[in-house]
Amino acid sequence: MAKNRNYSCKDVDMLMASKSIASSFKTNIAELSAVRTDWNETYSTDLITKIDNAIETHLGIDTKKELRSATAALTSIQVPAKRDISFFKTQIDEDFKKETAKRDEILTTLGFAKHLRGVQKSNHESLIQLLYQFKTNMTETLRKDITDKGLNSTLIDNIIGYANAFIQANATQETFKGSSKETTQEVTDVFNAIYDEIIGICKKASNYYQYEPLKKEQFTFSKALSSLGAAAKATKKETVKE
Q: Which residue range(s) make up the domain with 126?
C-alpha cells in the first residue's frame, strides 16, 4: 500500500505553496539566519532548487494514467478478438460438420477445446492462452486446410494480430501495475519530505515574525495555499502557539 501524503491539498498546490514559502525564506534569510545556524544563503538556495527539481521531475508523472491507458488498450482488443474467435469457430463447425474428427482436431490444436469456455465467461487468462495457442499452432498446412473450405485468410491474420497486440498490451499493463506502487511510493516520499521541511520552517519563522503580521503570513502554509486559490487545508499544524 502506498504511503499516505502528509498533506490534504493537491500535489501541485503543495509544491507551489512550498515554492512561495521557500522564496520568502530566501528573501528574509539575512534575518532568519539568526534563528538557526543551518539557515543560510546556501541552504535557502538549495531548498528552492530541491522544490524546482521535484516539480520538474515528478509533477508530471501519472503512472495510474499510463496504467489506465494500457488497460483501456487491453479492453479495446478483447471485444473484436472475442467476436472474431467466435466467428472463426462457427465457420469451422460448419465447414467441417461432415469431418467431425478433423473439426475436433483443429479446435483442440488452436486452443478452442481448452479455453473457449473461459473466453465466453470473459476470463482474461483464457483469452490470452487461446490467442497464444492459435498464433503458435496456426501452421501453413493447417491454414490451407481451413481456407480451402472457404474461410477467408484475413480472419486468421486478424486473430493472430490480436494475439500479438493482446500479449503486448497485457505485458504493458502488468509492467505499469508493478511499477505503479514503487513509483508512487518514491514520489510520495519526496513530496512528504518537502512538505515536512517547509512546515518546519513555517513553525519557526512564523513564531519569529509573530509581531510582524505581514511577514508571518508569508510563513503560514494555509495562507500560501489561499494565495494560489487552493483550499486552505493542511494536515499538520503549521504554526506554534503564541
A: 81-163
Model confidence pTM above 0.85:
no
The CA distances from residue 133 to 54, 76, 114, 153, 184, in Å, are 46, 21, 10, 17, 36
Whether residues 90 and 152 fall in one domain: yes
Choosing from 163, 189, 205, the residue where a domain stops is: 163
Decide: 216 and 4 in contact? Cβ < 8 Å.
no
pLDDT by residue for the chain (242 residues), tens only, comes to 346 889 998 888 899 899 999 999 999 999 999 889 999 999 999 999 999 888 877 765 455 565 566 666 676 788 899 999 999 999 999 999 999 999 999 999 999 999 999 989 878 778 888 998 999 999 999 999 999 999 999 999 999 998 888 766 666 655 555 554 444 788 889 999 999 999 999 999 999 999 999 899 999 999 888 766 544 444 454 444 33
Q: How far apart are CA 209 and CA 106, in angstroms?
A: 83
- Based on the fold, state whether residues 92 and 154 are members of the same structural domain: yes
In this structure, are 152 and 189 located in the same domain?
A: no
Name the strand (E) or helix (H) holding 200: helix 153-208
Q: Which residues contact 221 (CB under 8 A, 6 or more apart)?
A: 17, 21, 198, 199, 202, 234, 238
Domain count, the chain: 2
Q: Which of 178, 82, 95 is nearest to 130 (CA)?
A: 82
Residue 117 lies in a domain: yes
